[in-house]
Amino acid sequence: MESRRIEEAGRTTHVAVLSEGDEAVAALGQLVGDEAITAAQVTAVGAFRSAVVGWFDREAKDYRRNVVDEQCEVLSLIGDVALGKDGAPSLHAHVVLGLRDGTTRGGHLLEGQVFPTLEVVLDEPPTTLHKTFHPDIGLALIDLGRG
FRET partner for 7 with CA separation of 20 to 30 A, picked from 14, 27, 40, 58? Predict the structure, then answer.
């Protein structure tokens, strides 16, 4: 993965280009940690050799894993970065994947093996975002009361 930090007009943007074989979630998590990103909006396009997307089962309070075991286009990847309860930055991303037959699969991005590339943009707002865990739901959500 290669990345570049761009600072312009009081805003910071990170552009990353992931390479074949990179695992997207791990690579982006490392970038977020290395750059100490405390809030960001994330977008990306590219392709995966294979991926795992999740559907959140509220009753089980966990993600049901859906494996996409074929090359697929990343038609859309959107997400956010915020600080979790441990104070570490956390990436939350959703993805829509295009399959060879024109159908799509989507959900929470749990894993993605990059092939041949994934181009990612992280835009940092001039603030820090925090997530608070909600045990009734089983998820950590952005807490607008914390800043």
Answer: 27
